[in-house]
Fold these 4 entries.
Entry 1:
Amino acid sequence: MRRNTGDHVLAAVPLAWLAVLFLVPLGFTLVYSFGTSGFGSVTLGFSLDNYAQALGPLYLQTFLRTLAFAVGTSIACLLFAYPVAYAIARRSGRFTVVAFALILVPYLASLLIRVMSWQILLAQGGPLERILRAVGLLRSPLTVLDSLPAVVIGTLAVYLPIAVIALTVVLDRIPPEVVEASQDLGARPSSTFWTVIVPLSRPGVATAALLTTVPMLGELVIPVLLGGNKGLFLAQAISTQYAQSQNYALGSAMVVLLVIAVGVIVALLVRLTRGFDAAGAERGAG
């Protein structure tokens, strides 16, 4: 009985923390989204005008662009991360710790420093332009900075290590006996990879997608520094409504729509991993 009470107390601490720092502010945001905004104030009520404006021609394109950017960049991140994770999990052997250390090295610096370093690299007259000119791949000035490609490059650089680690953990847990059984039955290495390893790595793919797509939906620092703060994505539009226009009701409606999009993505990823709980339990029992 005492142990159960202690467990409940320990569980209540993070639950209370989550409620105070996440659920309560989200509740206020939801209430404000139905209100009427003045300059720096909100009159409470029930109106769908803010959602109509958030989904209107002015902001709908930004919302769809944000979704497309997050999903597309996350897919690109997975495509780059999967070969690296596979090599670490299945081929690195005793150098696994070294490989993990190299992947985590960028996280010794803050996000702001990492993004600003890409701002320097991609600038006109910067190191990247000089290198491309030296090898004859560039003749005109480099105009990548303050554009969508620069935002994609910076986002990939920031989130790629997260995807690699999530995929490596799952790939490393695939039993070697399963792979050997496939090869003993005459499957070629490519067939084993696509029919055995890739399906069994679905939880890692879903986790990596979750850890990259969701933060990308609300990414603000990278678009501001590498995209020129041109209002490319919804996070910048929300920041403008809160900080400059002080239209809290419209900004809250945008936040709610973003949370709904996150919920849909999470539900799809949970569906992708359906059936693996039972498999994991059977393996643990074995």
Note: DSSP finds 14 helices and two strands in the chain.
Entry 2:
Amino acid sequence: MEAREHTTRPGREQREPSPAPQPVQDIVHRIEEDIVFRAYHPRERLVEDELMQRFAAKRHIVRRALAELERDGFVLRKPNSGAQVRALTAKETTELYAVREILEASCAKLIPLPVEARRLAPIEKIQRAHAAAIAANDVRAVFRANLAFHEAVFRLSGNDALVDAIADFARRTHPVRLTTLVTEEYREQARSEHEEILRALRKGDRPQLVAMCARHLKPALKAYLRTIEHLN
């Protein structure tokens, strides 16, 4: 699954060295975002020396970051060959999304409905930021606002353990997101579906809320499967 084209992609600039040492979590988050935006390609090697220079970090800090990325499914580490960006297979991707659908539908069923205006206001603010990022064609801001929107919606359930599980599985599918984030049509579809979710929360329409949570996962999954169907 080598994808080594040399076109400029969102996030390429993020691979510049950082001016000051960064803690492990900062390094993890930066590399995660680079994987999402294909600054690092599937199966590309992550060279420790290069990461040490980029993040002004000691080797043990870089290794801890790579270990965390491996645990979360972003990276594979093999003896004598170092670390490389993990390439999700069709089977892995389908299974991850099946679990996400179960978790997110279960969470939607727990949200007390209808949601009162004062609790909905912060989520509506996040969605305005999401829409503004789409209008500005700021793909990174779209990505971050999308994550914030869904976390805020699921927090309404009051079940923090379930919300954390949802976030964990969402992170494991981050590499799938680029297939839709870079496409204007899909970004606009996501914006529209967010508005549908807000309407369901406002009106107390649980069947619509559960259905939208499931429907919202489909475009990225289908697009990613199409992109890898001819690859090993």
Note: Strands lie at 45-46, 75-78, 82-85.
Entry 3:
Amino acid sequence: MTQNQPPAPAPAPAPAPAPAHPPIGDRAPESVFIRPWPKVIFLYPTFVVATIFFLLSWLDVGRAEGQLGSPLLGNTFMLVLLLNLLVFSFDFSRIKSITIVFAVIALVLGVLWIDTKADLTGYIGKVFRSIDIEVSTSFFGFLSAGMGLLLLIVFINTRFNYYEVNAREILHHSGYLGDIQRWSTEGLEMNKEIYDVVEFMLMRSGRLVFQPSTSKKAIVLDNVANVNRIEKQVNDLLSVIAVRLNQQPGPG
């Protein structure tokens, strides 16, 4: 009498093969494009305000009968312009920015203390109320169109003058005929500098310094927008390169 043999267990399914490449979200970029901008790009707040005020002035907002333009728009525009020009006047380092903040606080406290003895704030308010800057619609329109054209030319120029970092080299694309200068990424050193707090606030910009091992001269890129993101992308790219170079063949 034969005993019934238990059925053989079904073979376990073969494991799915590992993907040849990591997911797209985790994959380091193959190339990082870096576009340094000229200083004039930091005038974009003035361009934006001039464009908005042109439309408001064209609609006669705040303009009284017989006035060339609205004093509110004129006074506000001059204040924005002067504050914007500070970007070109000083480098607002961290220490200098903190010093300016404390100086402004001390000045306000001093004015408030003096105001307890004399009506200083009333006098200051009278001085500011006496400022009457009337700006015509044509001025706002011409300035907006001129600055818009200038910023457009700058934008187009950055499409032809930029740096590319890939797995093997740094390439400097320059000129409208496609001139290229190359440096090897082997032994490349990179430093990031955020030397102006105001510029960083306006465009998240900073400076990147590359020191190729094959060159005695450093590559200095000023006014790089979104500098923290660009630095992370370059670090991810260079770290993948380092891992690939350090891989040793397995046994067999």
Note: The longest helix spans residues 94-115.
Entry 4:
Amino acid sequence: MINLQTKSTAYKINFSFFALIAIMILLRDKNIVILNLVGCMIHEFGHYLACKICKVKIKEVSFSCTGFCIRKLETKSLSYGNELFILSSGIVVNLLISIFIFIPTNEVLHLFGTVNLIIAAFNLLPIKGFDGLQIRDLIFARNVPLENFRLYYKFIKVLDIILFVILSLLFINHGNIIYIVPIAFIMLRKFEE
């Protein structure tokens, strides 16, 4: 792991990040790798801007096999709306880019729009390490009474299946069937919990 430190922020680069890039280069052409990395950076930049708007200090920026990640300092003092804004800002930025860039006939722009849509969809997954789990837990912790937990749990399983189907259809539509295997593995592990 490579560690760098500025005044208030730590930067950590895990070697798994480089391994992921190497695997992506072997699986696909270099354009898709670059577009994926740019899409991930844009996603995290959305979180970064939201943190700056809400005056939340960034504790750590890490790079690993799951991509880039920004960790915030003390969020317990944040309001519900500000925390939801920060958590969802990366997904919103990816969705906005995919909407505005998806339409043009330029092949690279169309691919970049697709990549941003997939990044947003992945981050909506309610899995540890993704924004979706934190957003879901924040919303339900604030709005679901404890006595409705079983109903909540069943609802979550249905939601997980819907998200899996949407991601699978996106990958099949764009000829990236190989990516369904890790999604299926993640979802099967999720259902075992």
Note: Helices lie at 15-27, 30-53, 80-102, 107-124, 131-143, 149-173, 180-192.
